[in-house]
TrEMBL record:
Alphabetical list of SUPFAM superfamilies matching this protein: Ribulose-phoshate binding barrel (SSF51366)
Gene Ontology terms: biological process: 'de novo' pyrimidine nucleobase biosynthetic process; 'de novo' UMP biosynthetic process
Lineage, opening ranks: Bacteria, Pseudomonadati, Bacteroidota, Flavobacteriia, Flavobacteriales
Catalytic reaction equation(s): orotidine 5'-phosphate + H(+) = UMP + CO2
Domain Orotidine 5'-phosphate decarboxylase: 16-254
The name this protein goes by in its record: Orotidine 5'-phosphate decarboxylase
Catalytic machinery residues: K96
One term of GO molecular function: orotidine-5'-phosphate decarboxylase activity
Keywords: Coiled coil, Decarboxylase, Lyase, Pyrimidine biosynthesis
EC top class, as a word: lyase
EC number(s) reported in the record: 4.1.1.23
Pathway(s) of this molecule: Pyrimidine metabolism; UMP biosynthesis via de novo pathway; UMP from orotate: step 2/2
Length: 273
């Protein structure tokens, strides 16, 4: 999917919501455990109930890998279901990969070609030759971890090297990579106060912003400092939406939670006009 198509979808739906499919058999409604593929049935119900309120889904690959072959099969069914039934939706493989060049190429093939995701999250730690293989795929996007939402972000990402914070170095150096037009960045919603400076380095790039809802980040603050004229934001919520209820009404309740966020996003989009 091109960035222009993503922006058009945001305008059409008046939403820049990404729903995280962090599907955990210990948290989904108990009655679904009787299904042959409980993970897929849960995802399908959530997707069917919310697809008009969001522009992206982000399965976190760890949740699928944890269930072995069964989990991987559910992931494959989920992405196929999305691509077939809701082709306008932007899909994110939250895999946080990155390795030496030839290995990164295999990761890229796995997620971009075999599974046909539109994008993947990547850790920048191994540098240029670990990231560039992902950037060579047309209309596929690489979402580099810049400033993450967790407490551990302060261990390395905000540390200064030659008087510059490491996450700022990640942002500025990565813009020189071959294929950098395919880069997006992760910035945690819990770090909204950093967005002003981040926008000075990457004024137009899309940012994937997790951490609203369960982690306590503020949507309004993220929009105030992070929104561009082309929106430039995908705000993710996982647990706050998909586990809002563990009863028969779980999909309807997920829709209500998604609707609350979409309405808050519409208000922010109205401010642009
Ligand atoms: O790359 C991510 O998506 C990510 C980066 C980050 O800095 N913080 C973060 O929470 N995430 C992911 O975003 C999701 C957040 O989930 P909730 O806190 O339940 O909304 C999880 O899948 C995390 O792995």
């Amino acid at each position: 999917m091109t960035t222009q198509e993503l922006v058009a979808q945001i305008h059409k739906k008046q939403s820049f919501l990404c729903i995280g499919l962090d599907t955990d058999l210990e948290k989904i409604p108990a009655f679904l455990l009787e299904e042959e593929d409980s993970i897929f049935e849960f995802n399908k119900a959530i997707i069917d109930a919310t697809h008009d309120l969001c522009v992206a889904y982000k399965p976190n690959i760890a949740f699928y890998e944890a269930y072995g072959v069964q989990g991987w099969s559910a992931l494959r069914k989920t992405i196929k279901y999305l691509n077939k039934n809701y082709p306008e939706i932007f899909t994110i493989a939250d895999a946080k990969r990155g390795d030496i060049g030839n290995t990164s190429t295999r990761y890229a093939k796995a997620f971009f070609e075999d599974l046909n995701f539109d994008s993947i999250t990547i850790a920048p730690y191994m540098g240029k030759d670990s990231v560039e293989p992902f950037l060579q795929f047309k209309d596929k996007h690489t979402i580099l971890l810049a400033l993450t939402s967790n407490e551990g972000a302060f261990d390395f990402q905000t540390k200064k090297i030659d008087n510059k914070e490491l996450y700022k170095e990640v942002l500025s150096v990565s813009t020189t990579y071959k294929g950098s037009e395919n880069l997006m960045y992760v910035v945690g919603a819990t770090k909204a106060e950093y967005l002003k400076e981040i926008r000075e380095i990457v004024p137009n790039s899309f940012l994937l912003v997790p951490g609203v809802g369960a982690q306590g980040g503020s949507l309004v603050d993220v929009c105030e400092y992070g929104m561009t004229k082309d929106i430039g934001l995908l705000i993710n919520s996982s647990r706050g939406i998909i586990y809002a209820s563990d009863q028969e009404d779980f999909a309807d309740t997920a829709r209500e939670k998604a609707k609350e966020l979409q309405e808050a996003m519409k208000k922010e989009l109205d401010k642009l006009n």
